[in-house]
Design goal:
single chain, alpha+beta, Aminopeptidase, ten-stranded mixed sheet
Length: 398
């Protein structure tokens, strides 16, 4: 086998056929692994100057592994650090490698590791985020690379999921009866229409964006024009997946919308938004209950609620997986500094003092700025600036 690094968008585009063939041959492929998803993210979300670092492994002419990475320069404890991160980071709940199911995962991961070792002068830290325990790779990366590099792993979040083989035997029957009672009451008091698994329409899309931004004023993904274009491009359809829209109309107006990705007989919950004036009527739960019942009847195998431990998810399931973050420190001149920095951060997380860690970093940076300003020739202006900055930093810390 041999590996190469893809570093330009033109080279990436040429991978389409090989990438699609590989994802068709994976043991368990998520929609986020597909070429269409990654390409849409590159076209609409990532900045033009993004530095690709995609490791592609071939067995003769057959593509057998892809590690979709990017390289970014970060300041870690005041030291510039070249960090390899997942290409899909912050765009998907899971980030992993594409590995051919007919090959040993250990052998493929070794090939990827050797490719990174050959380019060891180009990176200082490999930071893999949101590796999920449904993939065997999550455990193998920590073990295999931990034998050659200083490696850190920690659990980041829980991801609940429903295996439809267990539906409806594991649902919280009391809660579901209450949801159904609320649906009947809503239908008595209003003109209600519930539409499940509908195709994309501009009207429904615009209402989704409106409800999402209304609920998440500062953090909505749809505040970004790039994200809006990205999801609209997916709504037009891609090779193996599709966006599914379900919604509730009350008195002629859409008041709740759920958007799911349907892929390989699995359902992935992406967005659930509803009008705040109907929050007490539990219209989000009513819609979710109807949607799951429908997907079960359609022969779907699993519903992935994705990250988050909201109580409502456990009305329908009691099964969870975990996401992990894994950091691999390169054996170069920055190793000791990075090991100390990561160890301190890990201790801060362990003992619940990470917030203090961030505030201390903010305080130190502000003090440095204050000192630099203190070199001004205008002593009076310097003293005023010093006093204002110290007051500002004091407020942050307290």
């Amino acid at each position: 086998m041999n590996a190469r690094i893809v570093s330009t968008r033109a080279e990436f585009k040429l991978l389409e056929e090989d990438w699609n063939a590989l994802t068709d041959s994976m043991e368990s492929c998520d929609p986020y692994d597909t070429f269409d998803w990654v390409e849409g993210s590159l076209n609409h979300v990532h900045p033009p100057g993004l530095k690709l670092f995609i490791v592609v492994v071939y067995d003769e002419a057959k593509c057998v592994a892809i590690a979709p990475l990017q390289i970014v320069t970060e300041s870690r404890a005041f030291v510039k650090t070249k960090v390899l991160r997942p290409l899909n980071e912050n765009q998907t709940p899971y980030c992993g490698f594409c590995l051919h199911k007919e090959y040993s995962e250990i052998a493929l991961l070794k090939e990827i590791m050797e490719a990174l070792e050959e380019r060891r002068g180009e990176w200082d830290l490999l930071h893999l985020t949101d590796l999920n325990t449904k993939s065997n790779m999550t455990f193998l990366v920590e073990k295999l690379w931990g034998d050659h590099y200083k490696t850190y792993a920690h659990k980041s979040m829980i991801t609940p999921y429903l295996n439809f083989k267990n539906y409806p035997c594991k649902i919280n029957k009391r809660q579901i009866r209450e949801i159904e009672r609320k649906e009947r009451k809503l239908c008595k008091e209003h003109e209600v229409s519930i539409r499940i698994d509908q195709p994309y329409s501009k009207e429904v899309w615009n209402r989704l964006v409106e409800l999402n931004v209304e609920k998440w004023e500062k953090t909505s993904k749809f505040l970004s024009a790039g994200n809006r274009r990205f999801y609209e491009s997916l709504a037009a359809g891609w090779r193996k997946g599709r966006l599914s829209f379900s919604y509730i109309e009350i008195d002629g107006r859409i008041e709740a919308i759920s958007v799911c990705v349907v892929f390989n007989r699995n359902v992935y919950g992406k967005f659930m938004n509803y009008a705040p004036e109907f929050a007490r009527r539990s219209i989000g739960l009513i819609l979710t209950n109807r949607l799951l019942h429908y997907m079960h009847e359609q022969g779907m195998e699993e519903c992935d609620f994705e990250d988050g431990t909201q109580a409502y998810k456990f009305y329908w399931t009691d099964t969870v997986r975990n996401n992990y973050h894994i950091q691999v420190v390169n054996n170069n001149g920055k190793k000791l500094w990075l090991v100390v920095q990561i160890s301190l951060r890990t201790m801060a997380q362990t003992f619940g003092i990470l917030e203090f860690y961030h505030r201390t970093q903010s305080f130190v940076r502000s003090m440095i700025r204050v000192r630099k300003r203190g070199k001004s020739k205008d002593a009076e202006a310097r003293d005023i600036t010093w006093q204002q900055d110290v007051e500002m930093v004091g407020n942050r810390v307290h």
